[in-house]
Every structure is written in structure tokens, then in C-alpha cells.
Amino acid sequence: MTNNEFDMVNINNQIKKLHSYYSPTIIAEVNNEYVKIAKIKGDKVPWHTHENEDELFYILEGSLVMELEHQEPFIMQKGDVFVVPKGVKHKVNSDKECTILLIESKTTLHTGNVITEITKSIKNQKTHIF
Amino acid sequence: MTNNEFDMVNINNQIKKLHSYYSPTIIAEVNNEYVKIAKIKGDKVPWHTHENEDELFYILEGSLVMELEHQEPFIMQKGDVFVVPKGVKHKVNSDKECTILLIESKTTLHTGNVITEITKSIKNQKTHIF
Lengths: 130, 130
Prior knowledge:
Strand content of chain A: 35-45%
Order of helices and strands of chain A: EHEEEEEEEH
Number of helices of chain A: 2
Shape of chain A: globular
Oligomer: homodimer
Largest interface: A-B, 44 and 44 residues
């Protein structure tokens, strides 16, 4: 059965298509937000801030260390959902491979106001799957 | 380890707290959207439209029949993500229990412009967990 003119995606299939770490990939858009998936392994995400946008993290596989400025780091496990409020400086890392779902505004740069070797433009976040 | 001043929720734990069908429950808010979980069993969701808002469906457990006006119904399976674009009349049903995650604008009424026995206000969508 097909869904005719609109596209349905399966998150588990999309995860299999993720071939590199730190490459958020847009799987859907809803209103002003993008839903993205990404794999993280290591500590390459820099401290950064999204001044005007919240960012939701949902752990699909593995676990992730979430660090917020001026707070103790905490561990997110599979199924955990956490929203980094706008304006809060943060970074994430993971010793082992971790797969996450993100909800971010279409205007959000995934490394915020910081450009590093892992920074991808929105255009490049679309290239993997679309 | 705690996450200090901000709240983290675990979706699997929240699903266990869902005690009735057709009761979308807000688990997070990000920018202008609510993330909700709900269980569906049966065919009580009426045909309805959200004129100005897209609505994202993500199947966490089970399967769901998605019906869009003027199109063949299609089945969503676990892991499937589908966005009902704003203005598209739709309904969903499931013979067996199905657990879904929804992303909806804060202004969205979950049964759109149609009020039925299952319609819940946003306030009532918060009461289960918060």
C-alpha cells in the first residue's frame, strides 16, 4: 500500500542510511520544525548556544552525555527526551555510538553560533536521504 | 545523576502511564510545538482538519490505519513517520492497540474543528503526566 502523493518514512530504515557521525539528517518537517536523526560517537560537538530556539533530544539507541553550562553533566538513556531551552549553552558526547532524534526549528544551525569541522549546512542535512 | 533544573522524561515510562485510549498526553514542548504520546484502539477519531497546522505521526508500537480524504487508506507500521499537511482532512484507526508520538502546534486541537466524545482540551492533555 502506498501513501499516494505524500511521503512516509521509516525511522529504522533511515537510521541504516546514516553512514557518518555528526551528520544530522532531516527526515520530516512539521510546521516550523525539522525532525532529524543523527549518530554521535566521541566528543566533537562544540559548546554552542541557540539563542532563539529550543532543541529537543530523544535517544533512539545508546546513551548520550548532555552537558549544560553551569550544571552537572547527565546521562540520557534510550527513550529519554530532553529539551535544551533556547539560550542555554550546551554540548553532547558519547563514548559509544548513540543514535538520536532531534527536533529543531528550520532556522537552527546544529552547532549554533560555532562553526567547526562537523558543522553541516541545512542543505547538506538534506542530501543524505532526500 | 539528575538534570538539575530542567526535566527529562523517558517515553517508555510515560507510555506506561497512559491508561486510556484517545488521550493525547503532552510529554515535551519545543518552540511552538507540543510532543505528545497517545494510545489508539478502535475507530473513534472523527474525520477532521487542522486548517493551519501540520501534524506529525510516529508509530512507537503497533500499527495504524491512516486515512486522508480522496486517497486510499494506508497502514503505518512501527517506526513509520508521516506528516499530515495542514488543510488535509484525515482520520486514523486501529483494530489493535497502537501507541503513537505526535508533534503538533501548541494551537492545534487534536480533533481539529470537530468536537466528539474523545476531544480533550490542551489542559486535559497535560493532566496525566504533569
